[in-house]
Amino acid sequence: MKVIFAESHNLDRPDPVGSHQYIRLFKEAGHNCLWLGPAVSPMHIFKPDQINRHRFRVWRSGGRIMEGIKWLVPFTLLFYYNQPLLRSLYIGRNQYRFCLPPLPGKLKKAGFGRTDLLWCAGPVAYSLLDLVPHRISCYRLADRLDQFSTIPNNVNELQADLVKKVDFVLATSRELEEWALTIRRDHVYYLPNGVSDQFFADSDFEPDDFPSTGLPVAVYLGTIDTRFDLETLTKAVGAMPDIYFLLVGPVTDNRLLPGLQKLQEQLNFKMVGPKPYSELPAYLKRCKVGLIPFHLNDLTAAVNPIKYYEYLACGLPVVAPPMRELTGMNGPLNMYRTAKEFCQAIRNGVNTAKEDREKLVRYAENQTWRARYKEVEKIIDKLMSEDNV
User: Fold this and answer.
1) Same structural domain for residues 283 and 164?
2) CATH for 258
């Protein structure tokens, strides 16, 4: 089977998200896979950040092959973005029609003039449904995109167009599933995130920047952005000098930097920045508890956090506020609502017995990306069999 993933991330993103996991499992199953990365445009010439420079290099080289997966970056004259003129629905619905050279010819040259599965991971993939002959299509709905400042406010209308037009929808949270069901009543499937096999395996890697104080470590793994509740974390760092707080991941909300830099003055706090994906289990397995200190709002109500499963796979009790997804799963959780309860939940997690930590790992073993992929296979097989009737 030929599979095209129309994506909003680079294939070699250092911290893979769900689509990276799925395309590698499709490839492992023997399918011919192509990753159609986010387009570059004249607008990106004036955004000299590392990610966009990298995309331009991939585009200029005509594409790359990674782990047997073809990776193409198209060039488009108009790019759907939250800026005057560019935020129009017309551009969102037609972004891939503005590609030079025309995208259908570029895909045909790569051996994907036709595809069996067109996997859409962003709303601008809408025009691909007409441009790319395919047997079935899906939209993996993974975020409340209307909550991001770089995305136009009309994105929900564009998403609704795509939800209506694809053959099936995969929603990673109940909130997103319910929204999709207001648009269509069939072929909407709830399929939450999962955990990679590597988080269950033992690691010989020893991080040289891991805290050596001997204190039990409470870790946050992931992007530090608008969801991050720095105020509650700051209170806990000050109130719990016998617990070491470790943050592993990039800071993408610069408004948090002054507070984080102030915390760096504390003897029981450290930020080590982003780390290679292969090294993450080594950090987690040396910790005692995993933190998800998120604000409760419309964005986090729709989040099914991957870190939840990664913590559990490494035997870490999870401390989090009552996010809808986490409470709805009825899985292992040390829940808090106030800063005082946050501290107590951390202490409870640190004191979790070994046999209870082993139960956390067993729970995570049923929440892997492989298990999720099997569900995707069932959906595809069902739809393709119906198509042959």
Assistant:
1) no
2) 3.40.50.2000
- Residue 51: its pLDDT value, please? 82
Encode pLDDT of 274-314 as tens digits.
Answer: 999 999 999 999 999 999 999 999 989 999 999 999 999 99
Same-domain pairing of 184 and 250: no
Residue 163: closest CA among 139, 187, 147:
139
Q: How far apart are CA 222 and CA 305, in angstroms?
A: 10
Regarding whether 341 and 242 lie in a shared domain, the answer is yes
Gyration radius of the chain's alpha carbons: 22
Please tell me the distance from the alpha carbon of residue 104 to that of residue 381, in angstroms, as a whole number.
Answer: 26
Q: What is the pLDDT of residue 49?
A: 74
Does 286 share its domain with 208? yes
Q: Using CA atoms, how far apart are residues 154 and 300, in angstroms rounded to an integer? A: 20
Pairing of strands 64-66, 69-72: antiparallel
Q: One-letter amino acid identity for 255?
A: R
Q: Same structural domain for residues 338 and 209?
A: yes
**Torsion sign (Cα): 22, 27, 33, 36:** positive
Encoding tokens for residue 261? 């830099």
Q: How many domains are contained in the chain?
A: 2
3-state SS, 6-52, equals ECCCCCCCCCCCHHHHHHHHHHHCCCEEEEECCCECHHHHHCCCHHH
Residue 103 is part of a domain; what is its CATH number? 3.40.50.11010
205 and 338 assigned to the same domain: yes
User: Distance (Å, rounded) from C-alpha 49 to C-alpha 235?
Assistant: 34
Domain holding 262, by residue range, is: 197-364
Closest CA to 23 of 71, 60, 64, 58: 71
Cα(358)–Cα(354) distance, integer angstroms: 6
Summarize the chain as % helix, strand, coil (round to 5): 45, 20, 40
Cis peptide bond N-terminal to 101, omega within 30: yes
Q: Are 122 and 141 in contact (CB under 8 A)?
A: no
Contacts of 345 (CB under 8 A, 6+ apart): 319, 334, 335, 336
* Ordered mean pLDDT values, 10 residues apiece, the chain (389 residues): 95 91 97 95 78 88 94 94 90 95 96 97 95 97 83 92 97 96 96 96 88 95 95 97 97 94 96 94 96 94 96 98 94 96 98 96 97 97 78
Mention every residue, 6+ apart, whose C-beta is less than 8 A from residue 366.
Answer: none
